[in-house]
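I had to read the description of the data format several times before I understood it. For illustration, here is how one protein appears when written out as sequence plus structure tokens:
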Amino acid sequence: MSNDSSRGYGSVVPLKVGYLSDYPTGGGADTDAIDALRMVFDEAYESKLVDRPIEILHRQVLGLPNGSFKAVRDAFDDLVAEGCLAIFGPYVSDNVVPLRPHVERVAEVPIITICGSEGALGEWCFALNNGSMPEEPVMLASVLIGDDRRRIAIAYESSLIGKEYLAFAERVYADAGITVLTTVAIPQVESDKAAAVRALRDSGPDAVVHVGFGHGLWGFNAALEAIDWDPPRYTTTAFELAHINRTWMKQLSGWIGLDSYDERNEVGQRFLDRFEARYGRRPAYFMPSLCRDVAVVISRALGNAKPLTGEGVKDAIEHIKFVPSASGAPGTCIQFGRYIRQGWMGVDYLVARRVLPDASAHVFHAAPSVALPQISADVIPARV
């Protein structure tokens, strides 16, 4: 634990912000995330939004599904003990949902997560979620209708995330007039998917839809190729695993999925201009822009917290209104409130992108709002 008692009374200690990563990806993604946070925090200090530097305390652990929840909880406790005023993370619903009651009991530090389960939201738990289980099926239904895909087969991961996605998806698709011909369970780990893809094919769909965290996509293309079947295929924000490295991009070649990066967003492009000028690279995918948005929220909350405590920061987050976002389609904003814990404003905070068949790039495919009028109003969540 750090000790600030040695500092003189005339000095000022940095403001501490935790970054709790429970899904280590290695390589450039982790570096891009930290660099984006650091740049925005430095800009906040240089512009006098905050009156002292912001220090990032990074804790990287292997949480669920491949690791343990205990590692995540211990990392959270460590960041609280270090004096963090806010924590970005963890990421994964399997970890954040069980962590929420602990965060509420501790009642000292707000967290901002990007996970998709609404079970993660609470008094001290905010989300700039990278999609959500209730919303993504509506968005994906809009994309499917826009692409004239009305008869689908669903592959769902046998996990908390996969089953929660499936429950919402089946209800939304039925109301939207999309016929679900079959649902097939797949493991949330790398495994042989030959039997699963044959079952999907035999139902006669005009598209395959995958729902889940995304690990179940590993080997899916190979199984399709083995039976000489190349259907249109769609997934959730699991699509964003394609950005981890070239190997993952290959696993998702030909897939269409939801993503929070949209090159049409001028706020995001201006952020990347500054990022490139500072670091000499331009990471054009979702994570840097999302981290920019998280850092903007935390910076504003630190600048307006009265008093400068975890509770003061939590209350200041609730006063953030209509802040232009670097993520999502043009016009997406960030807003929180006393009973608003999920921060994206605008149905196109996710858009559909696709990985080219040769896995050389990902490109814009569609905005969900285009076909939303074709879905009955009672399907769309009221806050949208």
Q: What stands out?
A: The longest helix spans residues 28-46. The chain has two domains: 15-130+264-346, 136-262+349-379. Confidence is low (pLDDT under 50) at residues 376-384.
